[in-house]
Amino acid sequence: MKAVIFAGGVGTRLWPLSRKKSPKQFAKIIGDKSTLELAVERMLPEFNPEDIYVSTGKEYVERTHELLPNIPKENIIGEPAKRDNGSAVGLITAYLAKKFPNEPMVILWSDHLVKYEKTFKSAVLSAGKVVETDPNKMIFIGQKARFASDNLGWIETGDVAEVKEGTTFRRFAGFKYRPDEALAREYFQNSNFCWNLGYFVTTPAFLNSLFEKYAQDIFSVTEQITSKGSNDEFMKAMDELYPTLPEINFDKAILEKIPQECAYVVIEDIGWSDIGAWEALKEALAPRKNDNVLKGRTLVKESQDNLIYNYQQEKLVVAIDIEDLVVINTEDVLLVANKSSISKVKQVVESLYGTELENIT
Q1: For site-directed labelling of 172, which of 73, 141, 222, 318 has its Cα 20 to 30 A away?
Q2: 241 burial class (0-12, 13-18, 19+ CB within 10 angstroms)?
Q3: 33: pLDDT confidence band, cut at 50, 70 and 90?
Q4: CA-closest candidate to residue 266, choices 357, 157, 136, 148
Q5: Rounded distance between C-alpha atoms, residue 355 and residue 361, angstroms
Q6: Does position 9 have pLDDT exceeding 80, yes or no?
Q7: C-beta of residue 39 within 8 angstroms of C-beta of residue 5
Q8: Cα 339 from chain centroid?
Q9: How far apart are CA 129 and CA 106, in angstroms?
């Protein structure tokens, strides 16, 4: 079984830690490890390093290899241009379809936290067994909802299709994208709904056939790139052809069009959180809502429900009588914001483009 971890993007929602030169997937956000390192480690030892692939930007290939020395360098696929995750998934799918067409693969993302790794891996491996039996199947791994989120996508499921190795596989009944608050509460109270994580197990051949059917503009280009015989030819084709691919989200390109009968859903509590933004990281790491989440040299008095990350060891960050704040101290930027205002960080970063401060974005 193969694992593909997508580690592209800049991650402006985690600025000022995440920058163009050193995006979020390389930053030490949880303990002393990056989310990319954690994403790879949670697949071991069930997956051999040579069975793990990483999709990232071309400019980050060397950094990725330094961070993950056990992953063969040829398994790190560097995209020469940003073309959204629809084209990124299409490329790696076409690449693996040439090498391992009917071997199960799991698609994962590097900026997530998974607390219950044993449950997660059990679901992935069981899904792999189902796909071995039926290579034309896609199995989504969903998180049992912890609250009525109106900021996440949801999956609706039907009745139980089968049970394999203790894992229950339900029939797929469709996606529900970012419902309003009232609808999110309905979904939360209904056991047929779960959070959509973007994790799924299938075969490269089947997913590639979906690109051929539903996204010919991606398929035709990725087929040209991956048909090249030598590595030099492949890299040349990547540089020339990959930038011509459309900028389209994978959900819109493929998942919204997949027939319901082609998919199953596994709903588990794997302790998943999307930690691509500071307020999400706070929710994921705090045992209780009012607890502070701290990193580095900090001294906090009479304060609650804050995330304070200090990346300057020679400086002490002191907080007194504060609540509901995000405080991020780096060498050249100090960010202070209400947790509810973190969505505005991206706007701030974009406003710095083309100015004398662009070097800190």
Answers
A1: 222
A2: middle
A3: confident
A4: 157
A5: 10
A6: no
A7: yes
A8: 22
A9: 12
Distance CA 331, CA 110 (A): 25
8 A C-beta contact, residue 3 and residue 105: yes
Instruction: Collect all residues with Cβ–Cβ distance below 8 Å to 164 and sequence separation of at least 6.
Output: 126, 129, 130
| C-beta of residue 307 within 8 angstroms of C-beta of residue 339 | yes
Amino acid in position 327: V
Cα distance between residue 66 and residue 58, in whole Å: 14
| Residue 215, both tokens | 């996204």
φ, ψ at 338 (rounded to 5°)? -65, 145
Q: Between these two residues, 140 and 28, which has the higher pLDDT value?
A: 140
Find out whether 254 and 215 touch, Cβ atoms under 8 Å.
Answer: yes
The structure tokens 């490329």 sit at 91
Structure tokens at 79: 């995209």
